[in-house]
Every structure is written in structure tokens, then in C-alpha cells.
Amino acid sequence: MKIGRVSGTVVSTISAPVYDHRRLLLCDLLDEVGDDTGDYLICVDAVDAGHGETVLIVDEGNGARQVVSDPQAPIRAVIVGIVDELLVDGTAREVA
Amino acid sequence: MQLAEVTGTVVATVKYQGLEGVRFLVVQPLDRECRPQGRQVVAADGVHMAGPGEMVYIVGSREASLAMPEPFVPVDHAIVGIVDHVERS
Prior knowledge:
A: five-stranded mixed β-barrel; 1 helix; elongated; B: mainly beta; CATH 2.40.50.220; five-stranded mixed beta barrel
């Protein structure tokens, strides 16, 4: 799983059926101490995450398909948690 | 899933079974500021409507084949949606 920060929304009318009525969020990927890596992912939101929040992302197909309850869905990245705190090497890191 | 811009089309007459009728497009992956990033790749069009100049989002690896009419065809990138716009917060 990966840690990211919600930085935007992707608006799409024409898409594969599994994306209908689901929020697609642009997430900047963070490293283990919460710093920006420069990478990003487009993720389906399963937990009602808000802009600027630090989130937990599954970037793996089987887990993602389980979240949307569709074994044939062409989907890979899903937000599955909102991070309250990062504790790395005994030090608490600020998360948004 | 990643953003990409469609830059061209691929015409192939001879294709592996299960890929008949599948359109292949050349796409340029984009970074989060919608600037070109990395090498262009060929992606199967899973929405049947994407065309050159459009911004799309693509899915890679095995999930790409699930966007095809027939599952488990040999495809490693697929377009799964056309982007209307990206709202940055």
C-alpha cells in the first residue's frame, strides 16, 4: 500500500462502467516520512476522502476489485483509509 | 491509474485472438501537472471513443485486459476513461 495526499479531482463523463458514480481523486504520492515524491496516482475513493487529506492507497488489482465488489472491473488504485498519524522510527510525523 | 494524452492510432490487421475489433492508440503519459512524462506507449481503447488530442486515464498491467470485451487478452495498457477536466485543489 502507498501513502498519498489528495490534490485534485478527475472529472470524466465517458468511462468504463465501474467508474460511474465513483469519485476519482488525484493523489500525490508521499514517502515514508510524509514528503512529496513527485509521483501521483488517480484513485477511486472508497472512504469519502477530502482534498488535502493524507490517505492510504491500495495499488493492486485484486484488492481494488474486492473493494468495488466487481471481479471483472478494470481498476487498480483505490483509497482505502484516511491517515491520522504517521509514526516512523518513534517520531510522529505531521499529516494534513 | 495515470493521466495520458492520445497522440496517435495504431492500425494492425493481424492480431492475437480476442483482440479483433479492439482499437489501439498511442498515448503519452502525463505528470500531475498534465505535462508529458516518460515514453509513449500503446494502449487499447476500453471506452471505444477516445481519439487523438484527448486527455484520458489509463490502467496498466493485468487490469488493462479487464477493460476489453473479452477478458484475459494480451494487453498491458488500456484507456478506461476520457477526462473532461482535472480540478486541482
